[in-house]
Design a protein that fits this description.
By secondary structure, the chain is mostly helical. Helix content is 53%, strand content 8%. The protein contains 7 helices and 6 strands; from the N terminus they run ααββααααββββα. A two-stranded antiparallel ribbon has the order 1-2. β5 and β6 form a beta hairpin. α3 packs antiparallel against α4. It is elongated and about 75 Å long. The chain starts with a helix and ends with a helix.
Length: 260
């Protein structure tokens, strides 16, 4: 892509950047306080598990095949009974971090129509923030059913929820991705491509290593929208970004260990 770009005719002109000083005054995302609902569900199921601890068998099944046969089990301990709750808390922590990233990520504007682009960007962030909340709630409910299944076995219902939940989440991702491009703008057609402003965005190729790793020591932003695709990435030039990355990796690793 850089070779192709270098072969195109360029016009020497100063680059212009526009910012909206009122952008952060808008409600960019849904509050992380909504995750208190998720945490309340986790706490309720954990309390139910502790109160019914003695009623559990000495060996607890944790994995089943499609026919409902137990494929993995663990000895009964408080840690094995509450391990699902710890995994849930890890997932919620990740979701809260994602929601914070959506809110705090670097402002993106165009020079041709900054007002409209800002409005679309706000809607883009709010949609993905809502999706993050709903995804976290669905996963919380899914794991809650898995844990309750230790006491009241209903493999048909558990299998149905285990199948429906990831399908709904994937369909949500596909729908959000297909109905809008990165930043919230509409997906352009060929006619709109010909009619849109010929003003080019600021050239920041030097800050994108290998095309997708953002590294800019002069940018105070910790998170930024990905250059292509949908989502956000971190500014690898900021030390705190590495802390966030290690935090995410730690949560994933701990969740995998607890789920074994």
């Amino acid at each position: 892509m850089k070779k192709i770009k270098g072969s195109l005719t360029t016009v020497e002109a100063p680059q212009r950047v526009k910012i909206d000083t009122t952008f952060r005054q808008n409600k960019l995302t849904y509050s992380n306080y909504w995750f208190l609902i998720h945490i309340a569900i986790i706490a309720a199921v954990a309390i139910i598990s502790i109160l019914n601890y003695k009623a559990l068998p000495n060996v607890i099944p944790i994995k089943y095949d499609l026919q409902g046969h137990v494929t993995s089990s663990v000895p009964k301990t408080y840690l094995s009974v509450l391990a699902i709750n710890l995994v849930q808390l890890g997932i919620i922590a990740l979701m809260m971090l994602v929601n914070w990233s959506i809110k705090s990520s670097k402002q993106q504007l165009t020079t041709s129509n900054p007002g409209q682009f800002a409005a679309e960007n706000i809607q883009f962030r709010r949609k993905w923030s809502l999706f993050t909340l709903v995804t976290g709630l669905l996963l919380t409910i899914l794991f809650a059913f898995i844990q309750i299944n230790m006491f009241v076995s209903n493999l048909v219902l558990l299998t149905a929820i285990s199948f429906i939940t990831p399908v709904v989440i994937v369909l949500g991702v596909v729908w959000l991705s297909l109905t809008g491009r990165q930043g919230g703008g509409k997906i352009r057609n060929h006619q709109e491509d010909r009619e849109r402003s010929k003003e080019q965005p600021v050239n920041d190729d030097d800050h994108w290593k290998l095309g997708f790793i953002y590294f800019n020591a002069n940018d105070p932003s910790l998170t930024i929208e990905k250059r292509y695709g949908i989502g956000w990435t971190i500014n690898f030039a900021r030390p705190l970004s590495w802390v966030l990355l290690l935090f995410i990796i730690a949560i994933v690793v701990i969740s995998i260990v607890l789920s074994q």
